[in-house]
Write a structure and sequence with these properties.
Layout (H helix, E strand, L loop, with lengths): L5 H14 L3 H11 L4 E5 L2 E4 H19 L3 E5 L4 H13 L3 E3 L6 H10 L2 E6 L4 H7 L4 E4 L9 H7 L13 E4 L9 E5 L2 H14 L8 E3 L6 H12 L4 E2 L6 H10 L4 E4 L1 H8 L12 E4 L6 H11 L3 E7 L3 E6 L1 H6 L3 E5 L4 E5 L12 E6 L3 E5 L7 E2 L2 E10 L5 E6 L4 E3 L2 E3 L1 H9 L4 E11 L3 E10 L7 H9 L10 E4 L19
Parallel strand pairs: 1-10, 3-4, 3-5, 4-7, 5-6, 9-10, 9-11, 11-12, 12-13, 25-26
Antiparallel strand pairs: 1-2, 7-8, 8-18, 13-14, 14-15, 15-21, 16-17, 17-20, 19-20, 20-21, 22-23, 24-25
Helix pairs in contact: 1-2, 2-3, 2-4, 3-4, 3-7, 5-6, 10-11, 11-12
């Protein structure tokens, strides 16, 4: 990569001085550096960085008189409309609320009201849900048939005008829990917080400047959104699809000679299951995150695709915390890696005291992206400047972090602490188990007990007793699931997390 001349460097600073540390700045800087380079590829074709910047500026100009101080909600799948709206709204200084496309109408209405959404940009397929939600603000269609109430029409009919916002925009990301109404997480953004994470990423995740990147997770999710920002910042063509399909994802990698794939573990399993898969010789980096990457899956994936897999760990509240390289995953399967530069990870007990290596406690982080609380009020427990993640984990002797489960997932069965994730990891490695979810259920005698919901591999005739015996030989007796239920599939969110409340009782 050639060095930037001093005069060009000064020009590149102008978007930051105008908009602040927001997505609009990243897009504007890349448009100045790589105007003719492809920025985005979706089902409607390609956009260059210059075209994407022009679209964002035109949309911001068109929206300026309609928004006031209201927030912009985005209810879109992965396509140009999502990116254009994020860049336009953050250009105006209006806060952006990223909405989960899995929301029910009731959840959508509750979140939109709580977050003060004044304009909702949504795909046409979600129109019925918006109608039923009770949302009374302005609406604008993103992915839809051509018409006057679409962002495409506004972009085409508007000449961009210079904009200098009165304030810096915030991007509000919903927590990705599987129960209750998600909360909106706010962060204090600054270069001092973002730079160490960016430098750690460059050192441990060998994405190449300008190389195509396929982003499979939803862009409203913290993993998808983070790599949207990474891709824009590094001048990478973003390859997007509205819906995930494993074979189609491999085809996109092959057709566009993509260097990087970003996916959640469930997507990686689906990719592994594709028969007669297209060859992907250009694939150098596969980033996994968003949920637990079980050891058997990381091993199987790297055996099939080479040592290209990277596991990132963080939370909506705390941002990136650790990164595991392929070497880490080979040496210590299941690890989420070592902390990012200038970020502290501590494992604390219920009294806030640090526990020894190998012992489980709650994961606390500090020194990176600073969590500023939930938009509806409340926050996370803070101990000596470190913020609790709500995850249970432990460190090994090499300083690598392992996540054992959520703090609220741990159960006490007959007086023993049991982490469902440990049993889930073990069962997931059984050759006749395609997928498994282990949860705690009420028990009159023991208080709580483990229940395993299992999807068999095709043609398998494995029984409940077989799996109980398999666990009994490898773990303590109290960790053997008392219930093993065979199901055709596990109910999942769009980011691959199992919906525990939807599992059969």
């Amino acid at each position: 990569m050639r060095p930037i001349r001093p005069d060009r460097a000064a020009r590149l600073l102008l978007p930051y001085l105008r908009f602040g540390p927001v997505p609009a700045t990243i897009g504007a800087m890349s448009a100045l550096r790589f105007p003719k380079r492809t920025a985005l590829i979706d089902e409607r074709g390609t956009l260059t960085y210059a075209e994407l910047e022009r679209h964002a500026a035109a949309l911001a100009t068109a929206l300026r008189g309609r928004l006031g101080d209201g927030r912009v909600g985005i209810l879109c799948r992965n396509h140009r409309g999502f990116v254009q709206t994020v860049l336009a709204a953050s250009r105006l200084g209006n806060d952006v609320v990223l909405l989960n496309t899995d929301f029910s109408a009731a959840q959508l209405g509750e979140v939109a009201e709580r977050e003060g959404v004044g304009l909702l940009v949504h795909d046409e397929e979600f129109a019925a849900a918006v109608d039923e939600s009770g949302f009374t603000g302005r609406r604008l269609l993103a992915w839809a048939e051509p018409g006057p109430d679409t962002i495409g029409a506004l972009i085409g009919a508007t000449e961009p005008q210079p904009i200098r916002p009165d304030r810096t925009s915030n991007v509000i990301v919903m927590t990705s829990g599987t129960t209750g109404t998600p909360k909106g997480a706010r962060h204090d953004m600054s270069l001092s917080a973002l730079l160490p994470a960016a430098l750690t990423h460059l050192a441990r995740v060998p994405v190449r400047h300008g190389a195509p990147i396929v982003i499979a997770p939803p862009l409203f999710h913290i993993l998808g959104f983070a790599y949207l920002a990474v891709g824009l910042g590094m001048g990478m063509p973003l390859v997007l699809s509205r819906r995930f399909d494993a074979r189609e994802t491999l085809r996109l990698i092959a057709d566009h000679r993509a260097d990087t794939l970003v996916a959640v573990p469930m997507m990686l399993q689906r990719v592994l299951d594709v028969e007669d898969a297209p060859e992907t010789p250009t694939l150098r980096v596969v980033v996994s995150g968003g949920s637990a990457l079980h050891p058997h899956l990381s091993d199987a994936f790297m055996d099939a695709f080479g040592d290209v897999l990277v596991n990132v760990y963080g939370a909506t509240e705390t941002g990136w915390a650790t990164i595991a390289t392929p070497d880490d995953l080979r040496a210590a399967p299941g690890t989420v890696g070592r902390p990012s530069l200038r970020l502290t990870v501590r494992i604390l007990d219920a009294d806030g005291r640090e526990v020894p290596d190998g012992e489980t406690g709650e994961v606390y982080t500090g020194g990176g992206l600073r969590f500023a609380g939930y938009t509806g009020g409340g926050g996370r427990r803070v101990v000596d400047g470190l913020t609790g993640t709500g995850d249970l984990g432990h460190l090994d002797g090499a300083g690598r972090l392992f996540i054992d489960g959520r703090a609220d997932d741990m159960i006490v069965s007959g007086g023993e602490n049991v982490f469902p994730g440990e049993v889930e990891n073990l069962l997931g490695g059984h050759p006749e188990v395609a997928e498994v979810s282990v949860t705690g259920v009420d028990d009159d005698a023991f208080g709580r007990r483990l229940a395993a919901h299992v999807v068999r591999t095709p043609g398998s005739s494995i029984t409940e007793d077989d799996l109980k015996t398999y666990v009994k030989k490898r773990l303590a007796r109290y960790k053997v699931p008392r219930d093993v239920r065979f199901v055709r599939e596990l109910p999942r969110t769009s980011t691959g997390k199992v919906k525990a409340r939807s599992l059969p009782g």
